[in-house]
């Protein structure tokens, strides 16, 4: 029962559902905002409409993308994909969760991550990894809340906005 969980209670106006191709532009806008204004994504390269469509299409094929809708508008998205490309890593996936800036802190990220974890479990994956900029306390708290454990922090492996970035790895067993 979703309403018994306080996190879902706070996000009761959000509906989480599998993403569709028609969500491409809304997802791209949320992702590009994070690229331009935050260290959540370690790149300055915003996606063009064509790149956004191709990026989402890969997730739609796998069934590994979800969106949260509030009042009919996409307010956030979550995806999982291969953690690393070599086939020996095939039972491990990495998640990404993004909520539009004006809707953060309302439980939407939690609702998205819950759906993502359930979907990855159902698909038979073994471990979910989150790679988070070490100073991103919101994302670290979100993942802790779902049982992810800190697997370590790798110092100064990225750079953006003229400074070094540390990567915190968090791990959730799925099976
Ligand atoms: C990180 C993010 C996905 C969390 O989603 P959200 O909808 O804001 O989070 P929720 O409202 O579901 O809150 C989940 C938990 O995180 C905590 N949290 C959320 N934002 C926080 C912040 N800025 N600082 C500290 N804790 C925060 C909440 O308090 C809650 O913990 P609690 O249950 O102990 O109170 C969202 O803030 C976001 O999109 N941030 C920008 C992009 C990003 O950093 N994505 C993750 C990349 S790894």
Give a quick rundown of the structure.
This protein has 175 residues and is of the alpha+beta class. The chain has helices at 6-10, 24-37, 49-62, 108-122, 137-145, and strands at 14-18, 65-70, 73-82, 92-99, 127-133, 149-160, 163-173.
Distinctive features:
binds coenzyme A; alpha+beta; Aminopeptidase; 33% helix; 5 helices; 7-stranded mixed sheet; 175 residues; single chain
Task: Give your account of this protein's structure.
The protein is α+β, with helices and mostly antiparallel strands and 175 residues long. It has one domain (2-125): 3-Layer(aba) Sandwich (Aminopeptidase), CATH 3.40.630. 33% of the residues lie in helices and 34% in strands. It has five helices and seven strands, in the order αβααβββαβαββ. It has helices spanning 6-10, 24-37, 49-62, 108-122, 137-145, and strands at residues 14-18, 65-70, 73-82, 92-99, 127-133, 149-160, 163-173. Strands 1-2-3-4-5-7-6 form a seven-stranded mixed β-sheet, with helices on both faces. Strand 4 (92-99), helix 4 (108-122) and strand 5 form a beta-alpha-beta unit. Helix 2 (24-37) packs across helix 3 (49-62). The longest helix is centred in the middle third of the chain and has 15 residues, at 108-122. The model is unreliable at 1-9 (pLDDT under 50). Residues 34, 38, 40, 97-99, 104-110, 132, 136-139, 141-142, 145 line the site of coenzyme A (COA).
């Amino acid at each position: 029962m979703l309403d018994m969980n306080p996190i879902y209670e706070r996000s009761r106006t959000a509906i989480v559902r599998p993403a569709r191709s028609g969500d491409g532009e809304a997802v791209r806008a949320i992702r590009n905002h994070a690229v331009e204004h935050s260290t959540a994504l370690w790149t300055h390269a915003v996606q063009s409409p064509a790149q956004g469509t191709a990026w989402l299409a890969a997730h739609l094929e796998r069934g590994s993308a979800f969106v949260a809708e509030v009042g009919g508008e996409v307010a956030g998205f979550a995806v999982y994909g291969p953690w690393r490309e070599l086939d020996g890593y095939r039972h491990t996936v990495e998640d990404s969760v993004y909520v539009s800036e004006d809707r953060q802190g309302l439980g939407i990220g939690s609702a998205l991550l819950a759906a993502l974890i359930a979907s990855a479990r159902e698909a038979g994956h073994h471990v979910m990894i989150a790679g988070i900029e070490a100073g991103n306390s919101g994302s670290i708290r979100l993942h802790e809340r779902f049982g992810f454990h800190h697997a370590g922090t790798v110092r100064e492996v990225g750079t953006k906005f003229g400074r070094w970035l540390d990567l915190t790895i968090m791990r959730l067993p799925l099976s």
